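Hey,
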Amino acid sequence: MSETNLNDISHDLFAVRKEKLNQLRAAGEDPFRANWNQTHTSKQCLEIMPPPISGETESAHQFGPEVSVAGRILTIRVMGKASFVKILDRDGIIQLYFTRDEIGADRYNTHFKKMLDIGDFIGVRGPLFRTSTGEITVRAKEYALVSKALRPLPEKWHGLSDNEQIYRQRYLDLIVNSESRTRLIQRSRIIEEVRKFLWTREFLEVETPSLHAIAGGAAARPFVTHFNALSCDFYLRIALELHLKRCLVGGIDRVFELGRVFRNEGISRRHNPEFTMLEVYQAYSDFRGMMELVHSLVQHLCKTVLGSTKITRYDGVEIELGGQWREAKYKDLIIEKTGDASWFSRSKAEKLAFCREKLNLQEVREDWEDYEVTNEIFGKLIEPTLIQPTFVTHIPKELCPLAKLTQGDESTIDVFELCINGQEIAPAYSEQNDPFVQRQMLESQAGEEVQKIDTDFLEALEHGMPPAGGMGIGIDRLVILLTGAANIRDIILFPTLRPEDAVGK
């Protein structure tokens, strides 16, 4: 059926339902002004229903406690003088049983059968019982229409040809797709347990500014906005780091923030321009301390939210998050992939040639820095293979100007990148607290654009910052991992999309 025909049908149904609403109002009933005292959810009804009495069959219709439930109608099955209805509430689905004798012939025939539609919200009061098939059901003694749905629910949501409608109309997806609803509820539970875990370790949660005068803490393109009152440009933050380190300077030894960050870059299966970041900083720790922290945190989430340390990806691949995790140095992984023990002493020209001729990495460019050529190997050929948890340690110093140099090898820094499922989940550092080294590294990264250096942060360091470990975790990627989702859009309630009137332009 064409999209035009579907729209025509929807319009016709809207008109029919609007006429029902007019009839209800004419009879003195306005469902948009109604309310309902909900005493139990669907899950609670299942929990309080006593087991069948020994020796009696399910068909004996043993009654349980009286409850008052409310939710959206998903199905209506009319069978003459009796009908079964299923409603959806925040906990799930429960069945309702309506009879003409119980609610009255007139109300059953003229209101229940003629005025209720799939999608409407109703409230029902009555005792619980088990049907002949054993399904726990509410026998309706009283009911009310508490909100009329003027537009119909999609009958075959997964058959829509335009999958973006799932994200554009997430409210419909949540109604008809239990997997989406479960995944997004799990996201909320994961964030809740992250907070609980850090609170038990005496971390203080703080809120830092979303508008920054200088976009610092990461190498990313920011969104720019103009601050009229101050007559200057500001940036939506690309990281949380530099303000949280100021907290360390101020004496808050354990600090974290769960906040939105914004990067004006591409949209893909793994990237959304607005995403949620957890950053954690702990004084008198280092990147090794962060290893223990993230290892314990992820296993805590597995235990409390998933109930298992084994997860299954959307394509059936299993990942084991229990036990100890592998640790491998960045340089060792590069040498293993290239088969060249002298790789890091090769010239850039030799590396470029090897990448193109032996590794089929044709995108490497002459104007890249030496470390960028090597990192292309890691990003394209090594990281995607790290499915089981792996701490990749001691990465090149050029990749992060905010970490301490490795003693004995000042070409690398005391850093790990936790890779799981073929992507980085959490980078962590032994934080640089030497203000002179920090200034030098930031200036080297900034090049000629020295105005982009956060001099206020450097001044804060000059007041003294304790040795510390710091870590960032992309919450969206973590949720993708733990829920087995295939796309970042599946675990963001309302992902960023091109406006509908701009689609195709």
